[in-house]
Amino acid sequence: MFYKDDRLALFIDGSNLYAAAKSLGFDIDYKLLRQEFERRGKLIRAYYYTALLENEDYSPIRPLVDWLHYNGFTMVTKPAREYTDAMGRRKVKGNMDVELVVNAMELAPRLDHAVLFSGDGDFRPLVEALQRMGVRVSVVSTMRSQPPMIADELRRQADNFIELDALRDVIGRPPRENGNGNGQHGSQHTPEG
Description:
- By secondary structure, this protein is an alpha/beta fold.
- It has a single domain (7-83, 90-144, 151-171), classed as Rossmann fold.
- It has helices spanning 14-24, 30-40, 62-70, 97-107, 124-132, 152-157, 164-171; strands spanning 7-13, 27-28, 42-53, 74-84, 90-93, 113-117, 136-141, 160-163, 172-173.
- It has a 7-stranded mixed β-sheet with strand order 5-4-3-1-6-7-8.
- α5 links the parallel β6 (113-117) and β7.
- Residues 179-193 have low confidence and may be disordered.
- Residues 171-193 are annotated as: Disordered.
- InterPro entries: LabA, NYN.
- GO terms for molecular function: RNA nuclease activity.
């Protein structure tokens, strides 16, 4: 499905990929992820999308965002909005779908293959549009979680479905527990999302 001279771009729905990996019991090593797809084609761009809570002094995702930015990922962030729902519960809203779709459509004429890291069925029309423009689309998510993270309609629309669990050995590392790493992960590994 991947060809060495393919112009390739990655579109990573940060919170969706994080949730999928967490449901499978591992963390993504973004350095390894980037290297894996650099091997599979000519990587034009690797986009990472996430909403950030403003007005908090320290966001737990900030170290990851900074690391990705310095290590060749194109970061697309926007402030998450906090609101109170009808039941009086504090909620955070920060959907990055529109930004991802706009970037993918803009880049499409210069791509052969788009890799979407999300299981969100809302992306099906995007996949369809990219395909009409002659771009092959692979979707990375998981069917092995309970319930599956990949929407059936998205999986069927994609040219290629990549099971995240099958990438575990190539791009994963065990989740860190209580900060006591086992020593084999050096500083090249990313902080958690």
